[in-house]
Amino acid sequence: MAIDIKREGMRQGKVEQRVVYESGNEMAAYAAHQINYHIMGYFPISPSTEVAQFLDLMKANGQHDVVLIPADGEHGSAGVCYGASAAGGRVFNATSANGYLYMLEQMPVQSGTRFPMVMNLVCRSVSGPLDIHGDHSDLYYALNTGWPILMCRDPQAVYDMNLMALKLAEDPEVRLPVLVASDGYFTSHQKRRVMTFAHREDVHDFIGAQPPRGFPDVLDRNNPITVGPYMNEPDYINNCYQQSVAMYNAEHVYDRIRQEYAELTGRDYPILDLYRMEDAEVAVFIMNSASEIIKDVVDQLRAQGIKAGSIAPNMIRPFPQKQIAEALMNVRAVTVGDRADSYGGHGGNMVNEIKAALFTHGNTDTLVISRIYGLGGKDFYAEDGHNLFKFAIEAAERGYVEKPFDYYGHTPGDPAKAPKRVLNPMKYEDLKTGLITVTPDESTGKLNVRIPPLRSLTKKPKRIAPGHGACPGCGIFSGLELFFKGIEGDIVALFHTGCAMVVTTGYPYSAHKATYIHNLFQNGAATLSGVVEMFWERKRRGELDYLNLPDDFTFVMVTGDGGMDIGMGPAIGAALRNHKMIILEYDNEGYMNTGAQLSYSTPIGHRTSTSNVGKKQAGKLFHHKDTAQIMAATNIPYVFTGSESYPQDLVKKAAKAQWYAQNEGLVYGKILITCPLNWLSEDQEGTNIIDAAVSSNFFPLYEVERGITNITYNPEEKGKKVTVAEWLGSMGKTKHMTKPENAEALAAFEEEVERRWNRLKAKHESPYL
């Protein structure tokens, strides 16, 4: 196939290059490994997660020296990056959507104190409702953070912009952190032919082998500095002015850098990518991946005799106001496609900035049409491009814009077709069996629980309907349903983002038969706290009397897939306030909903997509946290661990959890569940693997009741103790740990398991520990 040199923007360069066939995420990682950054602080969120995964895989094989720091959440990852940049090194990050918003307050801090770094924003919808596909709603939040923003229409641009971004960030006239934006899934996951520098040395010749000298950092003992001081208004406005000057400097500095890059590679990225705009009478302004599709539409319209052209920016901060005004000088009408709305602003951010550009530079003749398109990853096809041009053509013919602002590609909706209830509410008498009794024992201060044979509880309806989309062998729902067998009466459940949430709530259907709420990882416990306290206050005021509730609700927050990492702070806050609720964590030892990245619950040595196994690395490098012990330290009434391999034990603990949550305060429970897809195990072996985890003392079954620890199953006393190695050998993700070359790591893991077990036994034996 012949390549249109004008369309591709390519010519012969001066450095040796090689051709690869990779995705946008792969090229972001590839550029980062060639730069050989000092530090990457990161937290996984789709669709940017792969960037860290690819870097970790290369790290495991010894291809770079980047120190990858898995944070507790995006806010933490931004803090890691800020500290690392203040310490004078080169720093890298990648994120998306709500993850970007979670770190948002750190963004102006970094730019306002003038520490350079590069972050890839793999653009994705900002919830709610939750949508993980690509639009620009996260990107538009970045516009006022003081970061220059470079745009990437394809994987080639992702690679090239990542190299230019660091040079721009470190330039003495700029000294700002730089954002590199690409479209989630459209660019991040689709593979294309990409030209790269063949040799790392040439990359370093372009960007500089070391960060520029002569700028303050916190590691210079001969020049101690104060970073981020408190400023009153006379100084603060001056600081902001200097930052503004640096931002506008970024425009001409970028222009210089891109010309230098074009000489080296033959690929040029002018601030505006203008296509057939020389004599255009109608145009479409559109960004990133859609801008390549629109060029085909321009060609088709030109073949029909219509003077069409397109504009796509390669930089939107600083906004190329003058260049856009000049490009539209002779255009009769332009349709601006925004892939996000500025709600209430009569158009997205780009259309309003373009209107301001035209007004500022005296162009009052070009008609401007605003259309919001492609939200939530809705595909953009050539026919959509034709429709955007149609709006401009009709406006040019009429001499006015009939509808200045609208959405494009939406369906207004028909009230007659509103979703209907599929599952009827469960009957209270079916949920309140009376088969489980819980009575306080005044002599021991503990609860006595009587449960019937488990088959007697099978008549209780399942609280989660069959038909959800979980993977074969997933242990989440068998574990949750077993726990719920011990809960009598009605519940209100909140689910963090995670596998359990995603596979049960695909609109317009829901597998939840009880009332269900979703909120993001970091705020679930706080959200349910609000629900709980509103229930009790409305009940006190008599506002719920009309419901004739036979019993109070049991409020349950379900978390997992790393939710007790990013959500740890609010969970501890809820525990210290002692709300009457249950926090139930299903522990599958990773962030399985985003592709099996390591979490702080992943044990040492285990293989995940961000703790790979290779010649330079053998799985996760640090121990897992003991969440149950952390929560026990908050002095809540009841903490427990459970497993579906010991069903009577789990049902009994569920009954206790309900009593404490309704009568005394917050309960935390942790159940180990299997994930065959990412544990690399057979679907049918889940219960056996969990049993081995319990019997090896890796996941001991115990409870902490009013501060007193009680081991509820001791494999040593039962004569069923197995070795840690036996358990590890049952999963593909850990078999490498049983090999001779990893004997030292295995021994360290076994020693830690034994240490925690002996400490637990000591607590079991003494009420004061």
Structural class: alpha/beta
Q: How many β strands by DSSP? A: 27
Q: Strand percentage, roughly?
A: 15-25%
Look at the structure and give the CATH class of the largest domain.
Alpha Beta
Question: Biggest sheet, strands in spatial order?
Answer: 19-18-20-21-25-24-26-27
**Gyration radius, to the nearest Å?**
29 Å
- Biggest beta sheet summary: 8 strands, mixed
Helix content: 25-40%
CATH-defined fold name of the largest domain: Rossmann fold
Terminal residue distance: 74 Å
From the 3D coordinates, which CATH architecture of the largest domain would you assign? 3-Layer(aba) Sandwich
Outline? globular
How many separate domains make up the residues?
Answer: 3
The CATH homologous superfamily of the largest domain is termed Thiamin diphosphate (ThDP)-binding fold, Pyr/PP domains
How many helices? The count is: 27
Domain Pyruvate flavodoxin/ferredoxin oxidoreductase pyrimidine binding: 31-257
InterPro entries: PFOR_II, Pyruvate:ferred/Flavod_OxRd, Pyrv_Fd/Flavodoxin_OxRdtase_N, THDP-binding, TPP_enzyme_TPP-bd, Transketo_C/PFOR_II
Keywords: 4Fe-4S, Electron transport, Iron, Iron-sulfur, Metal-binding, Oxidoreductase, Pyruvate, Transport
Organism: Paenibacillus flagellatus
